[in-house]
Amino acid sequence: MKYLFVICFLFQFYSTSANAQAYKYHTVKKGETVFSISQSYNIDEEDIYKYNPDAKEGIGINEKLVIPVEATRSENKAESNTQFTEHTVKKKETLYSLSKEYDVSVDDIKRYNKQLYSKELQMGETIRIPSGTAVASTNNTPVETQTISKETSVTKPQSNQITKTREHIVLPKETKYGIARKYGMTVKELESINPRVETLQPGMMIRVGVDVLEDEPVIITDDRFRFYEVKPKETIFSLTRRFGVSVDSLTQLNPALKNGLKFGMVLKVPEHPEGKDIEDDEVYTGMGEESNTKMDLSNSISNRSTKEIVLMLPYHLNKIEEDSIETYRNSILNERVVRISLDFHSGVLMAVDKAKSMGISTNLRVYDTKQNSSEVANIINANNFNEVDAVIGPLLQDPTEAVASRLESKNIPVINPLSNRSMRGYNNLFQSIPGEEYMKNAMLDFIAKNASGKNVVIVADGRAFKIKSEISNIIPGIRSVNPTNNYVSDQELKNALTTGSNIVILESDNINLVSSVTSALNRLARNHDITLLTTNKSNAFENDIVSNNHLGNLKLHYPSVDKEYDTDTTESFNEEYKERFNIEPNRYAIRGYDLTMDVLLRLASAGDLYESFEKYPGYTEYFESKFHYMPGTNGGFINDAIYILKLNKDLTINEANDL
């Protein structure tokens, strides 16, 4: 134990002695004023106010003031001897990339560009980059935080949340983000109790909260991490996607999250491994404000060149014999993949015609993949793909990856239309169907945004333990009802409900459990306000023994790739399709239309598909589907546009705005 005490003592001694020349304390004596103190130290009154902003409201006997002395002047002198390069910030440049380019640390750049402590790097902004050698000679101070443990009551608190404060001495390289996080505060709370402090200076004494997070040290200079201030409407799960970490990892980095996320909270988050400033790079994150904006690309058509589109689907045309067309037609009725391909193809043709009426010409080339990866290789080897703008298809994972791998060097986009399986991260591969993880996270975002002020209950079977844990992490105080033998009684559920608004989250793919819970909740809904939610509307919810009327009474909310097809608003499309194909369009035909229209409009409104995502960061939407592609964690692009749907009492389905 004594060894631990000695180490702590030496640590504190080192931290204090390293900064002894930067400032000194002055204890106010009777009769002293700010002016007399400034005269005794041969400094200006403003120097005292700068480091002691509350002194403008008066000073009292025995109050401690921070007095800047030689170290401050030494630092200014060091700055005057430092050579700088003026740099105008270009698009997508970050502090990290600049630090690597000029061989200086991120904190060295911030030191000589004070505005970067409180705001992000801006494109077109001119900043000063210090030379590496000059910086190295002045950058030898430790970064550990020294605190003074004396507590004082604030006479006129500026925030309803911070009622007690302690004093904190600002050390070199400390930022408002880092200090706020250290004391479990938001930046706004820190600024509210230090209203006259605009830019932090080493040696400055500021007021902070008294709740110090002792779980871990504050890492101030580490290229692996950065500080991030939580914005309105952000949730834990949107942040995990934004920074590419799990909920558990984010909570370990930020123990305060155990008590829930709040607007303005300062978090420690990982820096992107390639040095991208994740907060600024909306193309990477997909989480910017613009990503929630619907884009109508039909008003932005500018590229009138003929679009070269390749459609690759499994038709199994090799099964057709010259005299047996009828035999082939009968056989495909029993082959689901071929039926889907033909339905999808019909929607593609409708989209090509619609685009033509808008002035977009298309050269559509169709190839039969025969559900075979080797056939895909033969097609690419035997045909010229140099001028192709995009490939739509194939349907299945293996052929799709085979196409993407062979066309990656040509940078030709390959859009898989229907598979939600995780695929290899080829840089030219676009998955238009969000995977199950994206569906789940979209619903978790919805729950996190709408659970406030409501009683939340979760019913999950043993196989759903992971999602149960994730939901429990984002909703402190959630109530849990545990099934027994795939059954939950009315009384168990009733005990978990309140007289107010209740959200019940049901996570199971067991038909018996889904049936018993929905039946019991339907009976309890006569006297309780209940809304049923699930992150995965499994086949159990579609089973005949689960009553749709019960689900409608409970206002079931669930995530979905596509929304309900509205025949009223698409009457003209239905008529044209029926006239052409003598049948009503099904979901695959509509998917073919939506996806192809999106590709053609993106190509017509930009130089290529990649440029369209940067030029138009919002989402596009058509009859049943919407599209918003973001870079996948392993490469390529994934559509993360998902609907949250609500089943109404009359069994109609519409988008759910909130609860």
Q: Figure out the total of helices.
A: 24
Radius of gyration: 31 Å
- The low-confidence parts are 1-21, 70-78, 133-160, 214-222, 273-289
The count of β-strands is 25
Category by helix and strand content = alpha/beta
**Oligomer type:** single chain
Q: Round the mean pLDDT to the nearest integer and report it.
A: 77
Largest sheet: 7 strands, mixed
CATH C-level category of the domain at 297-431 and 591-627: Alpha Beta
Strand content: 15-25%
The dominant shape is globular
Explain what you see:
- Residues 134-160 have a biased composition (Polar residues).
- It comes from Christiangramia echinicola.
- Residues 133-160 are annotated as: Disordered.
- Residues 24-67, 85-129, 226-269 form the LysM domain.
- Pfam families: LysM, Peripla_BP_6.
- The protein is of the alpha/beta class and 659 residues long.
- Among the domains are: 23-66, Roll (Membrane-bound Lytic Murein Transglycosylase D, Chain A), CATH 3.10.350.10; 82-138, LysM domain (Membrane-bound Lytic Murein Transglycosylase D, Chain A, Roll); 297-431 and 591-627, Response regulator (Rossmann fold, 3-Layer(aba) Sandwich); 437-560 and 647-655, 3-Layer(aba) Sandwich (Rossmann fold), CATH 3.40.50.2300.
- The protein is 36% helix and 17% strand.
- It has 24 helices and 25 strands.
- The strands form 8 sheets. A 7-stranded mixed beta sheet has the order 11-10-12-13-14-23-22, with helices on both faces. A 4-stranded parallel beta sheet has the order 16-15-17-18, with helices on both faces.
- Helix 14 crosses helix 23 (587-604) and helix 15 (373-382) packs parallel to helix 16 (397-407).
- The protein is globular and about 100 Å long.
